[in-house]
Amino acid sequence: MAAFFAVALVALACPLMAFDLGQSTRCVTIPNQMKVCKDVGYSEMRLPNFLGHSNLEGEVVPRSEDWRPLLQTGCHPQAQAFLCSLIAPVCLDTFIQPCRSLCVAVRDSCAPVLACQGHPWPETLDCDRFPAEEDMCLSPHVKFSHFAKDLPKPACQHCPSVDDAPAMKTVLDAFCHHDFAVTAKLHRLRLPSGEPEFEIEGRVEFIRQGPLLPYDTRHLLHQWLLINCRCASALVRPGRSQLYVLTGSVQPDGTLALSRLFPWHRKDANIALAIRKWKHHRC
């Protein structure tokens, strides 16, 4: 996934500034294999696009896939709309660029994910280059409930401590000192491209629920793996799965941080014993 960011940033190195709004364009159907923008809300796009790509099969479709890992992190709910307005601009009588305010909203949420991989927000996506709200442009729209805003969110963080073969007291202390504790099986796919992709395999089981919600936690942990892919790469080998006990807390700003992780192997009787004792344990 780290390599994806490098490819995507190189792809954005220069075309946007050179795009000529007066040049001749054509409308084409968004192809089914262009999954990043297939369900964006319209079916036809303009070529060349705002990144200067004119070859649908040779440039647009493969370059659009470069952004899929970033969108999977859920860094901003309108990241897809912003990126697709550049990759696959809607085919109308006039060019519709993203508004500066939409760029700022997406940048403020997604730039930290790029930074987590060691890359800055691309200079060609400098938000000052996009039109202001009073111009005709794609503006941000708020359609998220107050409840959704209050849910914990994953964020970039230092890699959590990983304790192999811990003592029972060590595990119980971790349960006491953190907001939540869960068991989850982390799976790392072995993709043909060589890029890692992480999944939560099966159900997430609660030991201490804390502020987490049952229907949201599996997705939340999956996003954490995608954002913190460097840490995740150290947790499980390609093509393998590993069961972990994960403990952590929700920070004052609402972000979730994993703190101590315990790989749960069959021989680790202390972890199983700690989980059984937890029901009657007093911190």
From TrEMBL:
<keyword id="KW-0732">Signal</keyword>
<keyword id="KW-1015">Disulfide bond</keyword>
<dbReference type="InterPro" id="IPR036790">
    <property type="entry name" value="Frizzled_dom_sf"/>
</dbReference>
<feature type="domain" description="FZ">
    <location>
        <begin position="22"/>
        <end position="140"/>
    </location>
</feature>
<feature type="domain" description="NTR">
    <location>
        <begin position="159"/>
        <end position="283"/>
    </location>
</feature>
<dbReference type="GO" id="GO:0060070">
    <property type="term" value="P:canonical Wnt signaling pathway"/>
</dbReference>
<keyword id="KW-0879">Wnt signaling pathway</keyword>
<dbReference type="InterPro" id="IPR015526">
    <property type="entry name" value="Frizzled/SFRP"/>
</dbReference>
<dbReference type="InterPro" id="IPR020067">
    <property type="entry name" value="Frizzled_dom"/>
</dbReference>
<dbReference type="Pfam" id="PF01392">
    <property type="entry name" value="Fz"/>
</dbReference>
<feature type="signal peptide">
    <location>
        <begin position="1"/>
        <end position="18"/>
    </location>
</feature>
<dbReference type="GO" id="GO:0035567">
    <property type="term" value="P:non-canonical Wnt signaling pathway"/>
</dbReference>
<keyword id="KW-0221">Differentiation</keyword>
<comment type="similarity">
    <text>Belongs to the secreted frizzled-related protein (sFRP) family.</text>
</comment>
<keyword id="KW-0217">Developmental protein</keyword>
<protein>
    <recommendedName>
        <fullName>FZ domain-containing protein</fullName>
    </recommendedName>
</protein>
<dbReference type="InterPro" id="IPR001134">
    <property type="entry name" value="Netrin_domain"/>
</dbReference>
<dbReference type="InterPro" id="IPR008993">
    <property type="entry name" value="TIMP-like_OB-fold"/>
</dbReference>
<feature type="disulfide bond">
    <location>
        <begin position="103"/>
        <end position="127"/>
    </location>
</feature>
<keyword id="KW-0964">Secreted</keyword>
<dbReference type="GO" id="GO:0030154">
    <property type="term" value="P:cell differentiation"/>
</dbReference>
<dbReference type="GO" id="GO:0017147">
    <property type="term" value="F:Wnt-protein binding"/>
</dbReference>
<dbReference type="GO" id="GO:0005615">
    <property type="term" value="C:extracellular space"/>
</dbReference>
